[in-house]
Structures are given as structure tokens and as C-alpha cells.
Amino acid sequence: MKLWMYKCIAVLSLMMAFAGVLLPGLPATEFVILSAWAAAKGSPTIYRFIMSRPYFREMIENWQNGRVITRKNKVISTISISVCFLILWVHHVAFWVLFVATAGMLIALVIIWRRPEVRPATSQSSLASSEAE
């Protein structure tokens, strides 16, 4: 039963990540990380699929090694959130919807921009020493 739950979470999260690439305001990075976590627990096949994609693998490895979000991903997230805000504003949605969505997007931006952009020096130096051996 647990394996099926993890598999469902992995597949649904991966589908949301693909949709997030196309739709402004829908995060892709978070869904990729969630999908990898669930797949690692429930489906080695899905996990191998995710890790075989260089773009996804880089995001996941950065997150696993220091909770890193690259500047490129931060900028893409900021642009996507800004576009989403503009769409809501231009379409004159209800004030409470605009307020709640904007608050959520601002919280997400603060979290994203507070994450480090490069892996910690200790993991890079240990990587270099293990490669030298």
C-alpha cells in the first residue's frame, strides 16, 4: 500500500513539474524534488527516469547537497511568479484572491532567494579529494 502511495505521489508530482515548465506560477523545481523523494521510496524505475534527465538530476543533486537553488533557477522562478502576478492583476480577480496569491508568491520568493546558490565548500572539497583517489 505504501509503495503505491509513493508511486502515485511520484507520478503526479512529475506531471505537475512538466506542467510547471509551461504554466506561469506553477513551480517545477519543488515538484521535481518531491517526485524524486517519493520515487526513491517507492519506485526505482521512476527514480532512474528522473535522474537520467540532466536538468532534473542537477536540481535534485543541488538540493540533496546543501539545499542549493542556482541563480538561474531563482531568476526563472522570479520571472514566473511575476508573470503569474501580472496575469492575476490584469484580469481583475477578486481582491482577496490577489492578496492571498501575492502573499504566497512573496513567501515563496523569500524562501527561494534565501537558499544558497552554490554547494558548500566542504562537499566540493570532499568531492575533489575522492575524485583524485
UniProtKB/TrEMBL annotation:
Transmembrane segments: 29-50, 71-89, 95-113
Protein name: DUF454 family protein
Keyword rRNA processing: no
Keyword terms of this UniProt record: Membrane, Transmembrane, Transmembrane helix
Position of the signal peptide: none
InterPro entries named in the record: DUF454
Pfam families, per database record: DUF454
Superkingdom, natural source: Bacteria
